[in-house]
Amino acid sequence: MQEFSTFDGAILVDKPAGPTSHDVVDAIRRKFGIKKVGHCGTLDPNATGLLIIVLGRGTKLSEKLMGDDKVYEGVVQFGVTTDSYDSDGQILETRTVPPLTLEQLNELASQFIGDQMQTPPMVSAIKKDGVPLYKLARKGLEVEREPRLVHIYNFRFTDYSEPRGGFRLACTKGTYVRAIAHELGQKIGCGAHLASLRRSTSGKFDVAGATPLDLVLKMTASELEKKVIPFLKLSA
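Given the sequence above, the corresponding structure tokens read:
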């Protein structure tokens, strides 16, 4: 039987706005001196919430964990279009927001439920001939992107106060929530972008069980050890 160390597994981190998912991986690797560290599903820098960090032999399960369905909560700002489809990007256009009700927003949101082919934003980490698209976008280039099949299980606005609406969305892996915000703005005619995003669940894991990154980085190795979900439990 294969022997596993107490650091072969995963920890649940509540990522703050600011660092990239890779920044989180690097910080944990440096702090605890663990050679193999990875993450399961990128969160954009300004996105917060559940980031599953795999350690040691747990990195072998990253593809399995990455494939799980996700649930997000966020805010769409209507009337402002950006080149990245979120608040990180450059403003391209500002328009007047027409009168909208929560019922109207949910009627439009329901049109996204089900299978759909989604074209990734130019400002994304997907690579074209080995070069991340966001690097091409910075040079003012736009290239053809291959649409991807995604599935939206549920998309519902919980509140609306012009020009912002709070929502909850459940989807398959690889879904660009900011692309949905952008497309919704196009449907309404005023444009929109994703103002904030928080991942609340990934598969069977919930952000309620995650530890904020700043607290993780203050832990001792023995304290971190108590937070590790063992390899065998992850692979079950």
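The chain has two domains: 9-67+204-235, 70-201. Try to locate this feature in the token string yourself.
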